[in-house]
């Protein structure tokens, strides 16, 4: 093996802990503990040092991870108006090309992660049933889009934190 071939190590995928380190080390408001963990202590305060979808349990953790993967795959997070890239995954990944105000009613929702948002809503405490109509899903997702105790809210918050704090490793598919 030549020296140059030996010195070229294969690219190592970014470990989730690198994302966690970046997010927890950030001083950006969107990376505050109450936004990036669902783990809470007896006083309902975020458990220090915890991060990510793994702080949820069961189906909520799984659907949070699936939604996060979809958001990363489609790079669909937009600004709140849905008109440009930004730190609001629900606007671009759930609403899609529909005006966010119209989206709140459930009308015409067509984002690339629609199925993942619905699954995450169903898995969240207080969420609609899988057979609910788009208006019921939108009525639950809209007010909880950045609520860390919901599977979709936690995924949205992780993306917002990654964008705002420039934790690019958190956005790698």
**How much strand content do the residues show?**
under 5%
Discrete helix count: 9
* Helical residues, percent: 40-55%
pLDDT < 50 stretches: 1-15
Overall average residue pLDDT:
88
Q: What is the first-to-last residue Cα distance? A: 32 Å
- SSE succession: HHHHHHHHH
- What is the total tally of β strands? 0
**The number of domains:** 1
Overall spatial form: globular
Rg, Å, rounded: 17 Å
Structural class: mainly alpha
Largest sheet: none
Describe it:
- It is a single chain.
- With 173 residues, the chain is mainly alpha-helical.
- The protein has one domain.
- Helix 4 packs antiparallel against helix 7 and helix 4 packs across helix 9.
- The longest helix is centred in the middle third of the chain and has 17 residues.
- The two termini are 32 Å apart.
């Amino acid at each position: 093996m030549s020296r140059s071939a030996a010195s070229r190590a294969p690219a190592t995928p970014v470990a989730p802990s690198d994302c966690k380190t970046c997010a927890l080390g950030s001083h950006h408001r969107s990376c505050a503990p109450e936004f990036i963990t669902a783990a809470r202590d007896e006083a309902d305060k975020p458990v220090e040092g915890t991060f990510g979808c793994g702080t949820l349990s069961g189906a909520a953790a799984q659907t949070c991870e699936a939604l996060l993967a979809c958001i990363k795959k489609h790079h669909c997070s937009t600004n709140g108006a849905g008109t440009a890239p930004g730190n609001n995954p629900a606007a671009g990944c759930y609403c899609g090309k529909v005006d966010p105000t119209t989206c709140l009613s459930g009308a015409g929702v067509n984002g690339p992660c629609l199925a993942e948002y619905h699954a995450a809503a169903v898995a969240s405490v207080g969420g609609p049933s899988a057979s609910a109509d788009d208006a019921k899903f939108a009525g639950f997702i809209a007010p909880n889009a950045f609520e860390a105790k919901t599977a979709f809210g936690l995924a949205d918050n992780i993306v917002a934190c990654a964008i705002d704090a420039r934790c690019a490793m958190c956005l790698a598919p």
